[in-house]
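Progress report, Aim 2. The chain analyzed during this reporting quarter is listed below.
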Amino acid sequence: MGKTAIILGASGLTGGLVLKKLLDDDRYETIKLFSRKSIGITNSKISENIGNLLELEKFKDDFTADEVFCCIGTTAKKTTDKAAYKNIDYGIPAKAAKLAKENKIKTFIVVSALGANVKSNVFYNRTKGEMEKAILKQHIPNTFILQPSIIEGQRDEVRSFEKIGIKLFKLMKPILLGKLKKYRAIKAEYIAQAMIYLANTKTKQQQIISSNNIKEIAINNK
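Predicted structure tokens for the chain:
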């Protein structure tokens, strides 16, 4: 019998790549998607749960799986209200981790961000840091927190700031060496590949993985 995976954020860049890879992965029999609307893909592996993710606890009975891939995130441009922003970037992953713990899911993998820090003066970084803390508090045996730098990939939406950032980081690449390598832009493809590899590597430990190490994991374990 194959495994069951949960994906939060399958309509986004990284989550969409995770979904695509899991659909092609014979180890997985069922992929449960939790989202506010259908992603519009018909596949016998997919089971969609449609509703308000800000009330994720209402999905508790269906929130069962071997692994959770949490790729939820918004942007300051899309969600200008800070309270609403925090409800998404902190609230949804934190609730997902709590449900995973309650339903005895052993593996939880979440996309955070480089610079996440509960003590940061930057709202975005502080929110991500608080999210990481809430997830680690659940003590799920196999917990992986990925901290990518700016993410490269083909998005449906236009993100002008990210496009500028990616171009800047590419220009800076020759000087981002040693400890600075983690600041290089990273392809969403590498993040998705690393997440699936980690999900199938039972370590029984909690790990925070920086951007350059995400890429190494992906390249070395295709």
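Residues 134 and 206 are 13 Å apart (CA to CA). The helical segments are 13-23, 82-102, 123-136, 160-172, 188-199, 211-220. These observations will guide the mutagenesis work planned for the next reporting period.
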